[in-house]
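User: Fold this; tokens only.

Assistant: Input:
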Amino acid sequence: MRHNPPPREPTLDRPLELPRFLPAGTGALVVEFGAQVDESTSEAVLALDRAVTAAGIEGVIELVPTYRSLLVHFDPTVIRAAALRQTLETLVAHPEAAPREERLWTIPVCYGGACGEDLEAVAKLHKLDPQEVVAIHAASDFRVYMIGFAPGFAYLGGLDPRLHTSRRVEPRLRTPARSVSIGGAQSALNPPFELPSGWHLLGQTPVRLWDPRREGDATIGPSLLLPGDRVRLSPVEPGEYRDLCARADAGDPVAQLQILSRTAEETPA
């Protein structure tokens, strides 16, 4: 009896042309810049985000930058998808010339103990002392790739490879507000409310990454962090953490903001 060979996976004669413009229902377009999570792809996404914002396209409702794509929500009764795509193609080819403002945030973190119940387990897994894990994590050069999942939830790239850790087999249904965690090759900063998570909890930050009281603030908005921001973590002791939490709950951002420029001027948030 003759057996036919299994079908082979289709192959492409040439690589996919990027960016790709993909419909997302009747009221959104996805502009996809790549398949990898890296800074160059992220910068392309953010450049288009700025260009669309500056263009003030009638009918565009909201922009959602992600790791490697920009989601453009629009009103199809105001602008057709084909016309929007044509405009986006022009903006991709001729992006906004003005550079993005480079922002560096220094964010305090209380590691271990009641604030980070997985610190000991992560240290044991990687054959490190808990203080070594803290030192490595706090020394990482983090970049905010995306805000999502929950208001103000920040996905951070740049985790030191020595701390890359598969996510938990059994996710927790509730994790503490303001948690600082790791999962895979990423770290994350939680907003000030409880969330489900399969990430490993290393600590907590007093910073309110989401605070609607900041609506209309000229310097920072409800979401403290934005895609493209840089983040450094600064370990603090439990007593200082409690004091900073009280200040943050009273409206003080407590994080320090530095605008990265030739003068490297540092400005408190």
